[in-house]
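Per your request, structure below.
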C-alpha cells in the first residue's frame, strides 16, 4: 500500500475526473493521499475532497508562487487548520526560481508569508509542507529563526543538495521525493536519496506535474507514486514492499500522529 503525500487534485487537469483517478489509485494500491492547498480561494475545494473521501486529507496554505490572491494571516490559517481532516500547513516556503526581473530583496512578501505559515504551524502543532526552489538558504534560515523544528514537516518535491537535506533532517524534517527521482538527468538527486534514511523519506507525485518515467511529460496522477517508490527501492537496495511500508508509516507518523514517536533532531546521524 502506497501513500501520495502531495498532490493537487483540484487543478483543472483533473476536473470531473476524480472517480477515474480514484479507480486508478485503487488498482495501483495507492490507498491514501494528501490534497495540497495553494490559495485560500482554493481551500474549500481541497477541503471538500478530504471530507468526501475517507482516504484523502487536506492541507491549508498559500503557495509562494501564488500572487494576486488573498494574503493569509496567522489567525486565518489557525481557523482553517482547526477544521476536520486538515492535517498540515502549506504548501508554503520560498521560490526564487521565477523572479520575473525582481531582485531577491523584492521578495520580502514571500518571506513574510512563509513566516506567517510557520507561526500558524507552531500554534496548531501541525506539520509544515515546505516548498523551496532556488531559495534553500533563506528557507532554512527562516525555519531556524522561527523555531520550526517544534512543528516539523516535510521538504516536498526535494531537488536540493545533500547538505540542504542534512540541515533539513537536523531540523527534524522529512524529505519527500517525487517523480524527478526517476528522470535520467537526476543522478545528483539519486545520490541525495541514497543519503536520506528511509525512516525520514516520503514519496509523492505533485500531480498533475512531474510524472515519473515512463510517463514523463504527461499529466501525473497519484496512481503513479509506486514508480517513485520503485526508484527509491532500487537506490536503497531494499524490497519495494519495504519502501511502501516505511514511507506509509512515515506519512502516518508525520501527518496523522498515529504513534507517539516524533523524529528527534539528529537521529539520522545514528544511521549515517
Ligand atoms: Zn511545491
Ligand atoms: Zn505542490
Amino acid at each position: 500500500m502506497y501513500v501520495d503525500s502531495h498532490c493537487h487534485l483540484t487543478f483543472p487537469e483533473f476536473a470531473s475526473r476524480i472517480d477515474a483517478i480514484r479507480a486508478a489509485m485503487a488498482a495501483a494500491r495507492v490507498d491514501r493521499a494528501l490534497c495540497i492547498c495553494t490559495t485560500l480561494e482554493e481551500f474549500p475545494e481541497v477541503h471538500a475532497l478530504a471530507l468526501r473521501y475517507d482516504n484523502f486529507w487536506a492541507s491549508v496554505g498559500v503557495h509562494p508562487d501564488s500572487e494576486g490572491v488573498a494574503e493569509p494571516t496567522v489567525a486565518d490559517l489557525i481557523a482553517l487548520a482547526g477544521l476536520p481532516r486538515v492535517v498540515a500547513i502549506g504548501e508554503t516556503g520560498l521560490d526564487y526560481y521565477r523572479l520575473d526581473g525582481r531582485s531577491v530583496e523584492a521578495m520580502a512578501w514571500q518571506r513574510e508569508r512563509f513566516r506567517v505559515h510557520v507561526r500558524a504551524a507552531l500554534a496548531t502543532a501541525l506539520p509544515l509542507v515546505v516548498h523551496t526552489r532556488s531559495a534553500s538558504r533563506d528557507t532554512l534560515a527562516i525555519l531556524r529563526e522561527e523555531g520550526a523544528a517544534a512543528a516539523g514537516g516535510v521538504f516536498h518535491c526535494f531537488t536540493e543538495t545533500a547538505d540542504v537535506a542534512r540541515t533539513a533532517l537536523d531540523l527534524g524534517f522529512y524529505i519527500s521525493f517525487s517523480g524527478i527521482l526517476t528522470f535520467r538527468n537526476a543522478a545528483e538527486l539519486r545520490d541525495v536519496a541514497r543519503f536520506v534514511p528511509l525512516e525520514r523519506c516520503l514519496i509523492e507525485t505533485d500531480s498533475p506535474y512531474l510524472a515519473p518515467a515512463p510517463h514523463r511529460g504527461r499529466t501525473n496522477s497519484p496512481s503513479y507514486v509506486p514508480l517513485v517508490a520503485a526508484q527509491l527501492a532500487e537506490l536503497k537496495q531494499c524490497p519495494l514492499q519495504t519502501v511502501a511500508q516505511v514511507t506509509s508509516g512515515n506519512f502516518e507518523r508525520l501527518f496523522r500522529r498515529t504513534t507517539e514517536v516524533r523524529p528527534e533532531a539528529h537521529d539520522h546521524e545514528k544511521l549515517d
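The longest helix spans residues 108-124.

Regards,
D.
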